Predict the structure.
Amino acid sequence: MSSHVIDDVDLPYEASKLIRKPNVGPEGYFSNDLRVGRIISTHHYPEMKKASYKIEVDFGPVGILRTSAQITNYSIEDLDGRRVVGAINIGHRVLPGGFVSEFLILGALLPDGRVKLLEVSDDVPLGSMVA
């Protein structure tokens, strides 16, 4: 699939429809820098074609990073203060309105394409590496 879609009729992310991706080996996996952070602010992002939020996350000693995400199935109130997992070494991407996305927030895709964020216990320190 070339771009993320939400479709509650065709269910494009139904597990039985997904093809297993090629092996990347341990080097490929361990090259990802996955860290625990806490959402410190969430705002609507009206410049995007698909409903999205602008999100700032505190990754502790790594610092505060920004991203955009199509996770509007969560309210802003449900997101602010929540611990999340982010892929923080994927590079930067300039989005509409000049917003710079600095990481990818991680979640599981439900069959219809909505994202269910990965959950992290509150006792895990910010900036912790995900293994």
Notes: The first strand starts at residue 34 and ends at 44.
